[in-house]
Write a structure and sequence with these properties.
The protein is mainly β. 3% of the residues lie in helices and 48% in strands. The protein has one helix at 101-104; strands at 4-7, 10-13, 18-24, 33-39, 46-51, 58-60, 68-73, 78-83, 92-99, 114-117, 121-126. Strands 2, 4, 5, 6, 9, 10 and 11 form a seven-stranded mixed beta sheet that branches. It has a four-stranded antiparallel beta sheet with strand order 1-3-8-7, with no helix packed on it. Strand 5 and strand 6 form a beta hairpin.
Length: 127
Amino acid sequence: QVQLVESGGGLVQAGGSLRLSCAASGRTFGTYAMGWFRQAPGKEREFVAAISWSGRNTYYADSVKDRFTISRDNAKNTVYLQMNSLRPEDTAVYYCAAGSPSSKGVAVQSRLGYNYWGQGTQVTVSS
Protein backbone atom coordinates (compact mmCIF):
# COMPACT_ATOMS: atom_id res chain seq x y z
CA GLN A 1 0.00 0.00 0.00
CA VAL A 2 1.25 3.46 -0.89
CA GLN A 3 -0.16 6.76 0.31
CA LEU A 4 0.64 9.90 -1.66
CA VAL A 5 0.47 13.52 -0.51
CA GLU A 6 1.01 16.39 -2.95
CA SER A 7 2.17 19.87 -2.01
CA GLY A 8 3.52 23.01 -3.64
CA GLY A 9 0.51 24.20 -5.56
CA GLY A 10 -0.67 27.81 -5.50
CA LEU A 11 -1.39 30.94 -7.48
CA VAL A 12 1.26 32.22 -9.88
CA GLN A 13 1.37 34.70 -12.73
CA ALA A 14 1.87 33.55 -16.29
CA GLY A 15 5.54 32.98 -16.98
CA GLY A 16 6.23 32.04 -13.39
CA SER A 17 7.35 28.77 -11.82
CA LEU A 18 6.17 26.30 -9.23
CA ARG A 19 7.61 23.09 -7.86
CA LEU A 20 5.21 20.36 -6.86
CA SER A 21 6.22 17.59 -4.49
CA CYS A 22 4.61 14.25 -3.85
CA ALA A 23 5.62 12.45 -0.67
CA ALA A 24 4.95 8.74 -0.53
CA SER A 25 4.64 6.37 2.38
CA GLY A 26 5.61 2.74 2.14
CA ARG A 27 8.81 0.87 1.53
CA THR A 28 7.89 -0.04 -2.03
CA PHE A 29 8.05 3.50 -3.42
CA GLY A 30 11.26 2.78 -5.27
CA THR A 31 9.67 -0.06 -7.22
CA TYR A 32 6.91 2.04 -8.76
CA ALA A 33 6.75 4.29 -11.77
CA MET A 34 5.41 7.70 -10.79
CA GLY A 35 3.18 9.97 -12.78
CA TRP A 36 1.71 13.43 -12.64
CA PHE A 37 -1.73 14.05 -14.05
CA ARG A 38 -3.94 17.13 -14.03
CA GLN A 39 -7.62 17.90 -14.27
CA ALA A 40 -9.09 21.25 -15.21
CA PRO A 41 -12.74 22.10 -14.48
CA GLY A 42 -15.06 20.33 -16.90
CA LYS A 43 -12.25 18.32 -18.45
CA GLU A 44 -10.95 14.80 -18.10
CA ARG A 45 -7.87 14.02 -16.10
CA GLU A 46 -4.88 14.12 -18.43
CA PHE A 47 -1.32 12.89 -18.38
CA VAL A 48 1.41 15.42 -17.66
CA ALA A 49 4.64 13.53 -16.95
CA ALA A 50 5.96 10.20 -15.71
CA ILE A 51 9.22 8.75 -14.47
CA SER A 52 10.40 5.16 -14.24
CA TRP A 53 11.19 3.53 -10.92
CA SER A 54 14.92 4.13 -11.41
CA GLY A 55 14.51 7.68 -12.65
CA ARG A 56 16.31 6.76 -15.82
CA ASN A 57 13.35 7.29 -18.13
CA THR A 58 11.05 10.27 -18.24
CA TYR A 59 7.97 11.00 -20.32
CA TYR A 60 6.08 14.22 -21.00
CA ALA A 61 2.90 15.37 -22.62
CA ASP A 62 3.60 17.51 -25.66
CA SER A 63 1.90 20.47 -24.00
CA VAL A 64 4.47 20.61 -21.18
CA LYS A 65 7.61 19.34 -22.88
CA ASP A 66 10.56 21.69 -22.41
CA ARG A 67 8.71 23.56 -19.64
CA PHE A 68 8.16 20.90 -16.98
CA THR A 69 10.68 18.51 -15.43
CA ILE A 70 9.84 15.40 -13.43
CA SER A 71 12.36 13.92 -11.01
CA ARG A 72 12.42 11.59 -8.02
CA ASP A 73 14.46 10.96 -4.92
CA ASN A 74 13.93 7.37 -3.84
CA ALA A 75 15.85 7.92 -0.62
CA LYS A 76 13.26 10.54 0.35
CA ASN A 77 10.26 8.72 -1.15
CA THR A 78 9.44 11.86 -3.09
CA VAL A 79 8.71 12.77 -6.68
CA TYR A 80 8.86 16.34 -7.97
CA LEU A 81 7.42 18.32 -10.84
CA GLN A 82 9.27 21.53 -11.65
CA MET A 83 7.00 23.73 -13.72
CA ASN A 84 8.46 26.72 -15.56
CA SER A 85 7.01 29.21 -18.03
CA LEU A 86 3.55 28.53 -16.68
CA ARG A 87 0.54 29.43 -18.78
CA PRO A 88 -3.10 30.04 -17.86
CA GLU A 89 -3.99 26.76 -19.60
CA ASP A 90 -1.84 24.92 -17.03
CA THR A 91 -4.45 25.78 -14.39
CA ALA A 92 -5.75 22.53 -12.91
CA VAL A 93 -5.67 20.23 -9.93
CA TYR A 94 -2.45 18.23 -10.16
CA TYR A 95 -2.37 14.63 -8.96
CA CYS A 96 0.55 12.31 -8.47
CA ALA A 97 0.15 8.60 -8.98
CA ALA A 98 2.15 5.43 -8.39
CA GLY A 99 1.93 2.19 -10.28
CA SER A 100 3.42 -0.28 -12.72
CA PRO A 101 2.08 0.53 -16.18
CA SER A 102 4.49 -1.85 -17.91
CA SER A 103 3.38 -4.83 -15.85
CA LYS A 104 -0.21 -4.01 -16.77
CA GLY A 105 0.62 -3.72 -20.44
CA VAL A 106 -0.42 -0.10 -20.70
CA ALA A 107 1.42 3.05 -21.61
CA VAL A 108 2.82 5.26 -18.87
CA GLN A 109 0.46 7.95 -20.12
CA SER A 110 -2.59 5.86 -19.21
CA ARG A 111 -4.40 6.35 -15.91
CA LEU A 112 -5.03 2.62 -15.93
CA GLY A 113 -1.37 2.00 -15.17
CA TYR A 114 -1.52 3.56 -11.73
CA ASN A 115 -2.91 1.98 -8.58
CA TYR A 116 -2.40 4.78 -6.09
CA TRP A 117 -3.41 8.43 -6.28
CA GLY A 118 -2.93 11.48 -4.14
CA GLN A 119 -5.63 13.99 -3.22
CA GLY A 120 -4.34 16.63 -5.59
CA THR A 121 -2.99 20.16 -5.30
CA GLN A 122 -4.46 23.21 -7.03
CA VAL A 123 -2.32 25.17 -9.48
CA THR A 124 -3.76 28.45 -10.74
CA VAL A 125 -1.96 30.55 -13.35
CA SER A 126 -3.23 34.06 -13.85
CA SER A 127 -2.82 35.96 -17.11
